[in-house]
Structure formats: structure tokens, C-alpha cells
Amino acid sequence: MRRFPILLLLLVAIAFLVINAVFTVDERQKAMVLQFGQVKAVKEDPGLAVKVPFIQNVVFYDSRIQGLETSALEVTPLDDRRLIVDAFARWRIADVEQFRRAVGVGGMAAAEQRLEAILTANVREALGSVRSEAVLSADRVGLMNRIRDASIIEARDLGVDIIDVRLKRADLPEQNLTATFERMKAEREREAADERARGNE
Length: 201
Description:
Layout: H1 3-21, E1 22-25, E2 29-35, E3 38-43, E4 47-50, E5 56-62, E6 66-69, E7 73-75, E8 83-93, H2 96-103, H3 107-127, H4 132-135, H5 140-155, E9 160-171, H6 174-200
Antiparallel strand pairs: 1-4, 2-3, 2-5, 6-8, 7-8, 8-9
Helix pairs in contact: 2-3, 3-5
């Protein structure tokens, strides 16, 4: 009878160790095993995996495609006609170890901050090298590809793949729109006055 409590405690201890040694990797995740802050293993395949209980811990990262929308940017093309643009990027973690080194414990939020800075800089550079007509025409596709390609190179340092970049909006600032409408109105009034003057001759 005395052996039963000891056996029960032993079974509980074993179960506790097993629970703390085994973890599950979801198909939408990548897992990193850390020991005292150092990377010991990366698990990318879904299923069960093991770690050393109490000494090692597991950090999970979302492996799905993510979306990132930049804040509205005011850019100045070559013709000094200011535009308000915002961009949208689709990205995912490609190299978990590199990602961890780049963003540390900041995770996805830190990565998005870094990616937004990369996108913003490349949007400004690409749109600042052309006239505003190129942004508002079919040339826009080429500009988006240019922004994407430049961003892909820079994002590699983050362990991230940028899949696509789109310019969602490219509009004149409100004050520019007002000035444009006023100019169009003045031109129409002048044309109407010219028509009336010709009719009175």
C-alpha cells in the first residue's frame, strides 16, 4: 500500500515532464526552440516536437502571408506636383533565425515597423524620380514593380520575403485639388466669356 502513493507521484512527475517536453507546431506556424536566449532548433514542419523541459522554451511565428499598409505619404514627383499616396505590401517570414536576429523579442510588430520604413523610402525614391503623370497612368505598374524589387532586397536582412507591393491611392493633396478646381472653373468662365464676346460681334 505504501508503494502506491510513491508510484502515483512518480507517474505524475513523468507526465509533467512529458507535457513540458512536447509541443505542437501548427501548419500555419514556424517554431523556434531557445535555450537561455540562444537558438537551438527551428521547427517548420507541422506536428509534434520535443524540447528540454524547463531549460528550453519555444517561440512561435506566423508563417502565413501578412498584409502591411503604409500611412499616407506626401511625395513630390519631378514636376513638383505633390501627391498623397499609400502603399500596401504582402509579406511573410522566410528565415526564422534571421528574423529573430533582426527584430529580437519585438516580433511581428517590430518587423512591420521596419518594413514600413523600407516601403516608405522606396516609394519616395521611385515616385520622386518620375513625373506625376507616370504615377497616375499605366506606368504605375512599372513603378510598383520597381518599389517591390528594391524592397525585396532590403527586406532580406529581416529574414522576410516581400511578395507584392501595390499603390492603393495616388491623389492630389486637398489644397492642390482646390487650386485645380478653381483653375478649371476660371478657365471655363474665361471660355464662356470669349463665347459671349464672339456672339456679340
